[in-house]
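Why run this: before we spend reagent on co-expression, it is cheaper to look at a predicted model of the complex and decide which construct boundaries make sense. The entries below are exactly what would go into the expression plan.
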Amino acid sequence: MHTVSRQLMIAPSLLSADFARLADEANAVPGADWLHVDVMDGHFVPNLTLGLPVVQSLMKYTDIPVDCHLMIDNPDRWAIGYAEAGSYNVTVHAEAAQDPVKLAKNLRAAGARAGLSVKPKTPLEPWVEVLRHYDTLLVMSVEPGFGGQSFIPEVLDKVRTARRLVDTGHLTVLVEIDGGINADTIEAAAEAGVDCFVAGSAVYGAEDPALAVESLRDQARACGSW
Ligand code: DX5
Ligand code: ZN
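The model came back. Tokens follow.
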């Protein structure tokens, strides 16, 4: 089997940062590959965070590529604004999108990478064809909505399937995982085939967030086939 080279990426989630000091918190993780921004609308998930004006402001204070994770209803209408604002990657939920193929095309046309996310109980198989139009697959390893929850190991089956589809040339997505990633769980995720690790509480709950990013990276590097 021809194995496609993987890129090890750490994406700190600002959900666990101090929302009144977002620019400082972004600058506290200079080694981050992406800055993960969780947009929640209080409908798709039972929590409310921030929206486009905050993302637009944040962009002025960081050079780190912004990875917007939209946990919102009707992403077909609202996701494009995050791409036009200059997000590097915009991820929408498979469970919320009406026309995910058209949505991916629109996001790419606006200059962003397009990501598709699946909740822990959402199977991967029905989305494989759609994922041919996407750049990123975000596998949720907790129920979306809140930081600091426990990792659901069963989702690693989807990671293994996605890794195989990428390694065999059927998909070209970057495999991202989100939820409960910390020193105890990152190695299993790396072994299963994740490229990009989102970590909220494990980074911003640490005394030194920059150091936490590097120690997660070192742990993952020791486990995956990079
Ligand atoms: C949860 C969010 C995550 C969250 C992860 O719905 O999508 O990005 O910040 O937080 P931790 O890493 O603490 O599980
Ligand atoms: Zn997220």
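The chain has a mean pLDDT of 97. The chain has one domain: 9-223. Bring this page to Monday's planning discussion.
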